[in-house]
Each structure stands twice: as C-alpha cells, then as structure tokens.
C-alpha cells in the first residue's frame, strides 16, 4: 500500500508527540510549569522521582535517543502510577482519571518493540537517518 512508505515517519511523529506530552508532566511536577494539581512536588519523594523520569524520559523519547530502554522505564513507571494512584479510586479508567497513564504505558511499550523510527538520534547512530 502507498501509505506504508510513511510508516517510519508516522512512528516518529507518535514518538515525538508522546515524548513531549510526557515531558510536560515532568515539568509540571518539578518546575511547576504549567501550574496545576500536581505542580511543585518535593524532589525527594515518589512524585519527584516520577517527575525526573517524565522530564528526562520524555526528552529522550522525543529526541529518539536510547528509545527502547527509556521507553521500557517510562512504560513501567506509568503501569506503577496507574495501579498505585488511579486504580484504587475506581475500576473504570475514565472515573479514576488513569486513562492517560494507560495510554502512555502502552505507547511506550510499543516503542520498546518498534524502536524510534525516522528522525531520531537512534537512527542517526545506526546510519539509517
């Protein structure tokens, strides 16, 4: 099919947008930007650790650097966050506000297996950019 040739670029777009959105969760926790319910958490707390993973992990995923390893860590963090913070509130993700955690978890799990795609440092390091 004609669209198949654009698959590496679609994968790159998914990776970049997901990484930037994930990074925003980290900036909210660590830098209080943008403000909100989770802004300004203590650095030496479980939420501070989550913020570091989200900020650094989101940046590395968006850049496509060490994508598979970083995506594995970020996927695990989101699974942990869902079961620790969201699932106890309600069985239904729409009610426990955990749908973003689930989505990030599975997008990052996909990136573990798919890799970074085009327009990435990983591709450039392998000479396939």
From TrEMBL:
<keyword id="KW-1003">Cell membrane</keyword>
<dbReference type="InterPro" id="IPR032808">
    <property type="entry name" value="DoxX"/>
</dbReference>
<dbReference type="InterPro" id="IPR051907">
    <property type="entry name" value="DoxX-like_oxidoreductase"/>
</dbReference>
<feature type="transmembrane region" description="Helical">
    <location>
        <begin position="44"/>
        <end position="66"/>
    </location>
</feature>
<dbReference type="GO" id="GO:0005886">
    <property type="term" value="C:plasma membrane"/>
</dbReference>
<keyword id="KW-1133">Transmembrane helix</keyword>
<protein>
    <submittedName>
        <fullName>DoxX family protein</fullName>
    </submittedName>
</protein>
<keyword id="KW-0472">Membrane</keyword>
<feature type="transmembrane region" description="Helical">
    <location>
        <begin position="100"/>
        <end position="121"/>
    </location>
</feature>
<keyword id="KW-0812">Transmembrane</keyword>
<dbReference type="Pfam" id="PF07681">
    <property type="entry name" value="DoxX"/>
</dbReference>
<comment type="similarity">
    <text>Belongs to the DoxX family.</text>
</comment>
């Amino acid at each position: 099919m004609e669209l198949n040739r654009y698959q590496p670029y679609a994968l790159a777009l998914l990776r970049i947008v997901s990484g930037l959105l994930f990074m925003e969760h980290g900036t909210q926790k660590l830098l209080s930007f943008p403000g909100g319910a989770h802004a300004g958490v203590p650095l030496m707390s479980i939420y501070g650790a989550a913020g570091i993973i989200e900020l650094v992990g989101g940046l590395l995923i968006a850049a496509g650097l060490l994508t598979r390893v970083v995506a594995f860590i970020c996927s695990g963090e989101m699974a942990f966050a869902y079961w620790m913070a969201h699932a106890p509130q309600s069985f239904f993700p729409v009610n426990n506000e955990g749908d973003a955690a689930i989505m990030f978890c599975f997008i990052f799990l996909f990136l573990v297996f798919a890799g970074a795609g085009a327009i990435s440092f990983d591709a450039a390091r392998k000479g396939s950019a």
